[in-house]
Structures
1.
Amino acid sequence: MQDSGILERMKSFEEYLDSEISVRKNAGTHKMMRSRTDFVAIMQLYRCGLKNEASFEGLKKSGDIDTAQAVKHVLDALDIYSFGFLSRWSSSVKQYADGLISLQKEGREKITKDDFTSLLRLKTKKRPYVVAALTLFTEGCGDDFTPRAKLREYLEIMNPEHTSQLCSMLLLTLAPKRRDNDGTASQPASDSGHEVPSPGTSGLIDQIDTLKAELESAYIRLNSSEENCRMLQEEGHESAMNEVLRLMNSPASGKLIDQFAKAEKTLKQLQSEKKEIPGDLTVLSVCVKIFMRTMRNVFGVEPVMTPGEILEINLDQAVTRYSYSGSEFEGGEFKKVEVTAPGWKRGDEIFSLPEVIELHE
């Protein structure tokens, strides 16, 4: 990175990342957790693609239910159904990351026009590809690329809708595109395919490139700010609604939703057994049905898990994903537990954690 505007562009890129990270951290605990789980799955799949089919099959059959689901989600998104496809995908990701690292370390003038054009296609790639390639970039780029730590932090929680914006900002930071008056990409080349600026014009070209990059960066950040503002407004409404529902199912409120769900299940069981409900309980039966129908159809409330389900969980999962009752965990121990209350969510946001209790052999 030798051009004069790189320090300003790196500062602008870091400010962009700070803004995105700040907004994303307000997206809710469940979204953040899901993003991190997806990130781990993407990188595990990338590394499996460089190993062998046995490691790939082992990852797909992971005993951790969240990891297994995330792996399946990523494979479906990439249309990968065999180790051969995964291996080719991993090789492509590595090649792409190596190109970005070369661009960062050696500068635009060392990259051929065709290679640079290929790098510009990053923003058209699917999210798992972008996450893997940019993570490898953060691991291999030079220490002089100051936003590397911020970029890695954002990749773990990245807003899926902002993948293209992130790619554009990174490429503008590393090497702003030069354009002729007709708007086409311009890169004069020598016989070797490398750019050769005319004598005395290098400094002026760098200044023009920097100005163009700053304008395009400002435009991207403006669009991102507008999108983030819209999301914050929507999430503010969603957060308020989820907080009300959380209070409804808190111990202080007698776990209202759990109790109505149990009552509904009992009524359905009595109905299936063709047992008649006493007349004086008919009104209560109607209330239960109306309440649960309102939860489902009006508020979009859904159970997270099924009571009676048997799981194996570790300490991290017991603390972050469930309301756990049982003995203390030791080290990386897994405990067998039973789901006693389903937990509840609206959309992707869990407002009441599933309750589990330890099972003793």
2.
Amino acid sequence: MATGVSALMHFLVDGLCLCCMYLMMPFAHASQILGIFLTYNVLAFLTQPLTGLAADHMKRPHWMLLASGTLLTLAVLLAAMARAIESLGAWSMTQAVVATLLGIGNSLFHAWGGRQTAVRTGNDIRALGVFVSTGAMGLAVGMMFCSWGLLHGFVLALWLLAVVYVMLDERSGKTSQASFMEESGVQTWNVGIERLLPTTVFGIVLSMVVLMTFVGLRSFVGESFASDITKSRGIILVLGGAAMLGKMAGGWVARRLGLWKALGGVLVVALACLFLRETGWTAVLLGIFAMNCTMPMTLYLANTVLRGREGLAFGLLAAALIPGYLLTMC
């Protein structure tokens, strides 16, 4: 239940951030819009290794959730105040502040949620997939249906679910500092992976570099599938749904087939669909689905390599998304 609540909060946080930024766009110049999104993305993604490292060392991790909710709420309130006094030019003065608050709040939430999911479930790859999956749909909904009413609804729902999560977590009685490796060890469904775990600093760094490179390439390929498509409201929702279902299904596929077979299989399907994407929507959607299936797999591996540093592992993979995204913009 706690995983489901955190996944719903992930939907709300990503939807809230994009909804708020899109509501600012009508009042901004073209150069300001670029600055808003650049500020937000840099702070939301590239700071996650730092916020993830902080999450690993927090004795009371839920303070990070509360800090995230507070910053996001302040961003929404500031945007609403600027809208109310629009004639005074408040938008131009507050856009950077709102984007900054959204970016840092988003970063704090993802670092908290990524670590909590790994620790509380024993790095269960299915739970990892469920948590990361909902953000894609949140982005689509926040962008397509952005309104002040929806934005305020996101904020209220986020705080309600945050209270529910903290209550559930406190009731469970688990120590906040317990590492998944201490609780459950290497999971029996993936027997053999312990022989591949790096034991030296060089091996750990090399393993993470390989995983981050793969994540960056996955981001680039995933964006390439739909880069030439004219995106109407319906299409954006369908693409977001395909990404969400892929991330959610990836963990279950890995549990069923084994990590390496599942990873190899979905990569073959994704690459085949990449070459066939001009043939129609079936190849595009199947390719996006298959590519996103790898997300919980790479996160599982990163948590295994950096056992005891699950927040840092999540943050490093999140930061690795940005280079691939920027490549598609060139």
